[in-house]
Fold:
Amino acid sequence: MSRVTEDELKKALSTTVIEKKDAKKRWIERMLKSAKSYHKICPYFDKRLGNCFLRQLSEKKGRCEREGKFDGCPVFMGFLENMYDKLVSEGKNLPIDFMDLSLHIY
Ligand code: SF4
Structure:
């Protein structure tokens, strides 16, 4: 029976961490691309009032400072990151389409 050295174990663990980060990054990029295919302006932007629906969920005032341009928006990217972490921790399947993701907001 062969033994695993400490270095081999550390290398295997770090590889797993990198793979998990890559999986998260890939999924976020996929969701962003999918969202852009459906929406020219952020789906969480209230055009009439200029507010951000996502910000309003966590803050009382929730102005969108980007006029609904969600590509690269830290609020939008943070939302995707949080959704990934939440779905993975709950053992749920990750949506492959942004429209399916919007069902998980509430
Ligand atoms: S702050 Fe970002 S997520 Fe919120 S409405 Fe504006 S672009 Fe969308």
